[in-house]
Amino acid sequence: MPIVIAAAGLMPGTGPICGGGYGCVWNVRAATLLPEESRMEIEMSPPDRARFDAHVARTDVRIGLTGIAAIDLLPFMALLGTVGIALRRLGGSGADTLERALPWLRRASQAAIVWMLAGPVHQSALETWLSPGMPSGFRIITTILLAPIAGGLLIAFAAYAAIWAVEAALKARRDLDRFV
Amino acid sequence: MPMIVQLDVMLAKRKVRSKQLAEAIGITESNLSLLKSGKVKGVRFSTLSAICRYLDCQPGDILSYETSDEDLRPDAGD
């Protein structure tokens, strides 16, 4: 995952382009990091595109992009890690596998919530950081679109609530087990 | 929660063995052992009734309480 974060910063906007009978090639286009409207604005003017590419090529900008990529990828990394540990605990031996897995599932749901909330922060930071290379110059951009994150956020909250309820039920059962 | 379980004393008085009592009231010997050592969170009324019935005694013969100010806290013992 650190490699992915570093790659996202060092080669911003890298992605495969396939088709046309030429197979797949990796194309580095930093403009793809921008929203459609801003991207079109840059793509249509060669001087603006050259200015933007020159801005993105700067070392300090790329280091900044690495940090911004971490905003999105670190919670995702935490989510993958915690789900992995939870599955490992669930697959383990012993009578208390669920009890040992639940705290990790709870952390996974928390990581999912953070990941969902990090989306708009990441996008806003990215656009603000790249804005000096855009025709309009530097400006602080806040991109908070609830629609793309609402579904994921609700599922993450539902998962957290369900895990909390199961944990509470298991605790109650443990307490009752100590009654003779 | 200084609740003292005096089941051992009652068993000795009635000359009843733990295994015999456990079988009679339908709980495991390990649970009865936990009860005798006071390492349980609570005793069901049904268990207490069965013990009292079998040993022909009152709950006060099995349980006694030692005064402690900590018991005035609602979450004491949790």
From TrEMBL, chain A:
Keywords, sorted A to Z: Membrane, Transmembrane, Transmembrane helix
Organism: Sphingomonas yabuuchiae
Transmembrane segments: 63-87, 138-166
Taxonomy, superkingdom: Bacteria
Designated name of the protein: DUF2975 domain-containing protein
TrEMBL record, chain B:
Pfam families for the chain: HTH_26 (PF13443)
PROSITE patterns noted in UniProt: HTH_CROC1
SMART domains recorded: HTH_XRE
Alphabetical list of Gene3D superfamilies matching this protein: lambda repressor-like DNA-binding domains
UniProt-recorded name of the protein: Transcriptional regulator
Domain spans labelled HTH cro/C1-type: 19-62
Originating species: Sphingomonas yabuuchiae
Example of a GO MF term: DNA binding
InterPro entries: Cro/C1-type_HTH, Lambda_DNA-bd_dom_sf
Domain of life of the source: Bacteria
